[in-house]
Amino acid sequence: MASSHLNWLIVRDHNSFMLKQRNIPKPFSKEQNNLMNVSTFRYSGIVHPHTIGITPSVDKKGVIFAYKKAKKMYKPAESTGRITFKSGQKRTLKKVKNVIQSKKYRRDLQQVALKRVSAIYRSQKTKPAKKKGAAKKTE
After folding, report:
1. What b/e string do you get for 96-122 counting C-beta neighbours within 10 Å, with b at 16 or more?
2. Is 38's pLDDT higher than 70?
3. Positive or negative CA dihedral for 47, 54, 20, 43?
4. Residues 34, 100: Cα–Cα separation, whole Å
């Protein structure tokens, strides 16, 4: 298998996950396990043997922490592991941080992963209903 740097040199300009637009210096990326959705070597989910991905859960109550197993690199169906966290924002942040630190798993992406978890929980909060004032009477 080639190194991740060589893979990046091959894939960086042309792949099916890129979204290029005019007047945008860095193209966006739709690939799985890309925390920033930017097409760069650091955040790429294609070329690295270890990757981290955080997505909202299906029922919109929590997050799914996805990671790539390096030992199963040649078996794509078995290479991705998923952990679902639904225990609230503070506990989820602590659990994600512990998983990344305990397994020494892409520590350079730890802060980005925690920011993504916070953003997902912020988007899942229910917004308070607006109070409607008394209707004005026009005579």
Report:
1. beebbeeeebbeebbebbbebbeebbe
2. yes
3. negative
4. 16
Which amino acid, one-letter code, is at 135? A
What are the tens digits of pLDDT across the range 40-77?
Answer: 889 888 888 888 899 998 888 899 999 888 788 788 88
SS3 64: strand
Listed in sequence order, the residues at least 6 apart from 6 whose beta carbon sits closer than 8 Å to its beta carbon are none
∠ CA 91-89-67, rounded to 5°: 75
Torsion of CA 76, 98, 62, 46, to 10 degrees: -30
Give me the residues paired with residue 66 across strands: 53, 82
Amino acid at position 124, single letter: Q
Radius of gyration of the chain (CA): 20
Measured in whole angstroms, the distance separating CA 6 from the mean position of its chain's CA atoms is 24
Residue whose pair of structure tokens reads 């005019």 in the numeric block: 22
Better-predicted residue by pLDDT, 135 or 5? 5
